Amino acid sequence: MSTKVSLYIPSVKISYTEDRIKTIFETLGLGLVNRIDFAPIMKTVTGKEEKIACNKFKQAFLYIDPREEIIWARDIVSALDENTAHKIYPNREQNEYWLILKNKSPVPYANTELNIHQLAHNNALLEARILEMEQEIKKLKEEKDEIEDIAIKMVNNYNYDEDARFIDQTLEYDDDSDSDDDETKERKAKEFVDSLEHILEMMEENIDNRVEDV
Question: How many domains does the chain have?
Fold first, then answer.
């Protein structure tokens, strides 16, 4: 489907407009282009973590209206069906060429009667909603971090000696428990820590569910 509908040019000069590319394809008998989507080519700058857009070249995604009985040139279709690239020369005087590839992720034609102003308004509403959701997620994550800090402090500040003294007093009423004294203390302490960790896991799960709901 993507071969028939959409082509991909990894790199064209930034100066090429949609109308110029359409004219080149028509003049060379490569097909009547109905629509072109441009995308920047991102490159890594030495010493910087973020990528920036290349100011000399861009990507181009060419489309034929799927409702029309128009196909690309036979040479292009044959090359793409064989999963190879097809080379064309938009400017032979400068020995310039484009590689034509299959667009593996074509963007479908919009089935809408909204005009560009309505679409822009809807897009602004979506962006505002996304920002609101990001802020809510950030708030929930901060709440989760606070709970983890509290739990860690509770574990670190747990007085094992005091709990051991309580166990000692309890064991005085059990004549057969002397040999199990240390083992019982350790078990009691472990039960306390395990129960605390279980509570923490439940609280974290609750927060994670709230994040997913957002």
Answer: 2
Phi, psi of 10 (to 5 degrees): -65, -30
Contacts of 103 (CB under 8 A, 6+ apart): 2, 5, 6, 7, 8, 61, 62
**Token pair in block for residue 72:** 């690309």
H or E stretch including 87?
A: strand 86-91
pTM: 0.53
pLDDT tens for 45-81 read: 777 777 888 889 999 999 987 766 667 888 898 898 8
Q: Are residues 84 and 122 in the same domain?
A: no
Q: What is the pLDDT of residues 176-196, one digit of tens each?
A: 545 456 666 566 666 666 666
Residue 157, in any domain of the structure = yes
**Domain shared by 71 and 138, yes or no:** no
Is 99 within 8 Å of 9 (Cβ atoms)?
Answer: yes
Write the burial class of residue 36 (CB in 10 Å: 0-12 exposed, 13-18 middle, 19+ buried): buried
